[in-house]
Design goal:
The protein has 128 residues and is mainly beta. The protein has 1 helix and 11 strands; from the N terminus they run E-E-E-E-E-E-E-E-E-H-E-E. Strands 2, 4, 5, 6, 9, 10 and 11 form a 7-stranded mixed beta sheet that branches.
Length: 128
């Protein structure tokens, strides 16, 4: 069975850092796309970043470029999201999601409907 488990969320002050983890089971990080989405109260789910595991290609939403970094660890079957210089507007529940190999990441990666499995989410709160 496919399972994704997020962890690493918490409360941080603006400018702080946090690293989220997405531990995968039931599949290996080999020919998949793993994405991070986030959803704040009253807002739509938003794609944050993704990584195509076959070649390591990554994408980021403009608002997090230069601050967030997505990475993978094949040995641990885990995808990470390193979040630096956090802002209050980053506050949300963060989800990881499993998708297929996208021929075109640019046109597909940020569409929630393209992902097959989702984790339970982890809360990130950025507040002073």
């Amino acid at each position: 069975q496919v399972q994704l488990v997020e962890s690493g969320g918490g409360l941080v002050q603006p400018g702080g850092s946090l690293r989220l983890s997405c531990a995968a089971s039931g599949f290996t990080l080999e020919t998949n796309t793993i994405a991070w989405f986030r959803q704040a109260p009253g807002k739509e789910r938003e794609a944050v970043s993704c990584i195509r595991t076959s070649d390591g290609s990554t994408r980021y939403v403009d608002s997090v470029k230069g601050r967030f970094t997505i990475s993978r660890d094949y040995a641990k079957n885990t995808v990470y999201l390193q979040m630096n210089s956090l802002k209050p507007e980053d506050t949300a529940v963060y989800y990881c999601a499993l998708g297929p190999i996208f021929a075109s990441l640019s046109s597909s990666w940020n569409r929630p409907g393209r992902y097959d499995s989702w984790g339970q989410g982890t809360q990130v709160t950025v507040s002073s």
